[in-house]
Design a protein that fits this description.
The complex is a heterotrimer of chains A (216), B (276) and C (222).
Chain A (H helix, E strand, L loop, with lengths): L1 H4 L2 H37 L5 H12 L4 H11 L4 H26 L3 H9 L4 H31 L11 H11 L3 H37 L1
Chain B lengths: L1 H36 L4 H9 L2 E5 L2 E2 L3 E3 L6 E2 L1 H14 L5 E5 L5 H6 L5 E2 L7 H6 E3 L4 E10 L14 E5 L4 H11 L5 E5 L2 H10 L4 E5 H4 L7 E3 L4 E6 L2 E3 L3 H17 L1 H8 L5
Parallel strand pairs in B: 1-5, 1-6, 9-10, 9-11
Antiparallel strand pairs in B: 2-3, 3-4, 6-14, 7-14, 8-11, 8-12, 8-13
Chain C lengths: L6 H9 L1 H32 L5 H16 L2 H11 L9 H27 L2 H9 L4 H31 L11 H12 L2 H32 L1
Helix pairs in contact in C: 2-5, 2-7, 2-8, 3-5, 4-5, 5-7, 6-7, 7-9, 8-9
The chains are: A mainly alpha (216), B alpha/beta (276), C mainly alpha (222).
GO biological process, one term (chain A): amino acid transport
Organism (chain A): Megasphaera paucivorans
Pfam families (chain A): BPD_transp_1
């Protein structure tokens, strides 16, 4: 009976859902990193107008549940299902990313700036060539943690019917409701998420260790 | 140093202004369009210009809107209805884009303009008519109850004090609670975002029954479950369009009328074994 | 767009405010108990993460890695739909507390583990040389010092817990998000429903966020 679950059609069905999860994850990571870095740098440089606007945006996004944003974006914008998931996730996560970037930039000692200015570099040059590269060491671990959060929280888009991995798993559970089959499906879905996220976080840890070894 | 900062600030502000103007401009165009819609074939023209009809349909209700797991194609009675509309507009029944919807998402997707019409087992009732336009009904389906054979439930009365699983956004909850009141019993409800989760709730024992339109339940019955003979609150399905798009609604209504007259409707009903 | 926020919809929301208040109470109940649970699990597994015995540290790694790398949604749905098959039928609020609590506990334990690791190892050694037991040292010497770095992170987790209770909306949990969804699903008044719900969550979380920011400043200065 449990073997019924492992028919090729079912496995394909589940993997197609995984593909959607990867799509949402991949694009959300890219957009939120770009948006978050931009906002984080703006806030760090304390640029007028933008800093304040960004601050308001961040204060709102970081205090709302992601599920709410999924619902709002799906229902209030004419975006197709997967794109609305990517939009919601990017908008939501960019706020957290910007705080990560800002925190990483803040951690660089002022001495770096002073030394660079004394060499005649502009603020932007200092940022680009000295501060940002060093702050990566601080920024990478929390950023990777956000990446895994993106992949895990992508499961919330199932609340609006988008068929990613969790959704596909639930559909199979509707079909194969015997105890053994049920547990097998859950285990498979959890395993796929786990493998993906564990790989990502292990990569991050390895890269982080590399960077530390280099600096010291 | 300060000047490059100022430059960046100016850049971003002007980008924001440009974006704002664009958004405002789009808003203006929309207003003009909806004013014009009440005049003549503007709504239909817009669809013709776009080149594709955007339809919301079910993909998990066998016979009405169902994605065949083997072919990956969506098929069903409602799919064919939508194709007939597309044929009337474009002369080609395949100029159509189907978006899967759930009971919860179908209404809002009309509002947001993502879809032109919804053909997704959408029951017509007075409250909904206030918010969306509906065509004349194309099918009537009563609400039914799916229960586990092992639970030995014979009728709605046996569900006194129990929990019934219903999908969010469907008229089922209201229909069942009214029927329960009539029978003098008390029931609790657990709502889920999709049909599969209602079925999962039934199977895990979280709910004693899954209530839904019978046509839908037929897709979920298996050897551990049975559909009770109770059937109540006949639900009339209609095709829904956005409230300010009366134009399109009348157009689709016309298509349906013609199909009923020409016997095409009957043919489709027979094809999907829905004729009583 | 304006129709989404039409006046009569707001009035309907006002009329039905008891539903939303009940939902809010459920959210708070689940949040508070989940915080307690995650704190307890956090301390236990945090210490387990630095324990001298290797197998204990291993158990901690398994717990942390499993619950940090799988979605809360899956964990909650599993507790809700799969446990009954083992004849364990927990009330939905318990599922919320367990699900959110165990999930956050994994993050809490990492916070405690790194906080403990930040306290100089010499403390443990000198304590041992004075004849104190492992647990006494941990409780009276190490943990109080770790508090300063741990507190802001705990605050952040608490905010996360409040937001994570919204997972109950996917398993008919009766919390604020479920109530809003259910109400809006029935009458399609989703404009006011989601706006008010967002506002309430914001009111719950924002003060906590500000408090955590203050804590973080204190941790830096000291």
């Amino acid at each position: 009976m449990i073997s019924d679950v492992f028919q090729p059609a079912n496995i394909m069905f589940l993997l197609q859902g995984f593909k959607v999860t990867l799509e949402i994850g991949f694009f959300s990571i890219i957009f939120s990193v770009i948006g978050g870095t931009f906002l984080g740098v703006c806030r760090y440089l304390k640029l007028p107008v933008i800093s304040t606007l960004a601050g308001i945006y961040i204060d709102i996004m970081r205090n709302l549940p992601f599920l709410l944003l999924v619902l709002v974006v799906r229902f209030m914008t004419p975006l197709p299902p997967v794109m609305s998931g990517i939009a919601a996730m990017s908008i939501f996560t960019a706020a957290t990313m910007s705080e990560v970037v800002r925190g990483g930039l803040n951690a660089i000692p002022n001495g770096q700036f002073e030394a660079a200015y004394s060499q005649g570099m502009t603020r932007f040059q200092v940022l680009r060539f000295i501060v940002l590269p060093q702050s990566f060491r601080n920024i990478i671990p929390p950023m990777m943690s956000e990446f895994t959060t993106i992949i895990k929280d992508s499961s919330y888009v199932w609340a609006v019917g988008t068929e990613e991995l969790t959704g596909r798993g639930m559909i199979l559970i509707g079909k194969y409701s015997a105890t053994g089959q049920l547990f097998t499906i859950f285990a498979c879905v959890a395993l796929i998420y786990f493998v993906l996220n564990y790989t990502l976080s292990s990569l991050a840890r390895w890269k982080y260790k590399q960077m530390r070894a280099y600096i010291h | 140093m300060k000047s490059s900062e100022k430059k960046l600030t100016l850049l971003v502000i002007s980008a924001l202004i440009a974006f704002g103007a664009l958004a405002a401009g789009c808003g203006e165009t929309d207003k003009k369009e909806s004013a014009a819609k009440s005049d003549s074939g503007q709504a239909i023209q817009k669809i013709k210009d776009r080149g594709v009809l955007k339809v919301g349909c079910k993909i998990d209700v066998p016979l009405f809107g169902f994605k065949n797991p083997e072919t990956g194609k969506i098929e069903g009675f409602e799919i064919d209805l939508a194709k007939a509309v597309s044929k009337k507009i474009f002369g080609d029944e395949n100029k159509i884009e189907f978006t899967p919807v759930t009971a919860k998402t179908r209404g809002p997707l009309l509002d947001s303009g993502e879809l032109d019409m919804i053909c997704a087992t959408y029951t017509i009732n007075e409250e909904r008519k206030k918010q969306y336009n509906f065509t004349e009904p194309y099918y009537t389906d009563p609400v039914g109850l799916l229960v586990k054979k092992l639970d030995n439930i014979q009728s709605l009365k046996d569900l006194d004090g129990k929990t019934i699983a219903v999908p969010q956004g469907a008229t089922t909850r209201k229909a069942v609670s009214e029927a329960a009141k009539k029978d003098g019993i008390d029931v609790k409800f657990a709502e889920f975002p999709t049909y599969t989760e209602c079925k999962a709730a039934l199977m895990s024992g979280r709910a004693a029954a899954y209530a839904m339109d019978q046509s839908n339940l037929h897709g979920y019955v298996d050897d551990q479950t049975v559909i009770l003979p109770d059937s109540f609150a006949p639900q009339e399905y209609g095709i829904a369009t956005k409230k300010d798009n009366k134009e399109l609604c009348d157009y689709i209504d016309q298509v349906l009328k013609e199909m009923k007259k020409s016997g095409e409707m009957d043919q489709l009903l027979t094809k999907w074994k829905l004729k009583n | 767009m304006a129709e989404i926020f039409a006046g009569f919809k707001w009035i309907a929301l006002l009329d039905d405010r008891e539903l939303f208040i009940e939902g809010l109470i459920t959210t708070l109940e689940v949040a508070v108990f989940a915080m307690l649970l995650s704190l307890i699990l956090g301390i236990i597994f945090g210490i387990a993460g630095v324990f001298p015995k290797k197998w204990v540290r291993c158990v901690d790694r398994v717990y942390v890695e499993f619950f940090q790398n799988t979605p809360l949604v899956i964990q909650a749905i599993f507790l809700y739909h799969a446990l009954p098959h083992l004849h364990i039928m927990l009330p939905v609020i318990a599922i919320g507390i367990l699900g959110v609590g165990i999930y956050s506990g994994a993050y809490m334990s990492e916070i405690f583990r790194s906080g403990i690791n930040a306290v100089p190892k010499g403390q443990m050694e000198s304590g041992m040389s004075q004849g104190f037991g492992y647990w006494k040292i941990m409780w009276y010497i190490i943990l109080p010092q770790a508090k300063r770095t741990i507190l802001p992170a705990l605050g952040n987790q608490s905010i996360g817990i409040i937001k994570n209770t919204s997972v109950l909306a996917m398993i008919a949990g009766g919390d604020l998000m479920y109530t809003a969804d259910s109400w809006a699903g029935a009458n399609m008044y989703y404009g006011p429903a989601y706006l008010v719900t967002g506002f309430i969550y914001w009111m719950l979380c924002f003060p906590l966020t500000k408090w955590v920011q203050q804590l973080e400043k204190k941790a830096e200065v000291g």
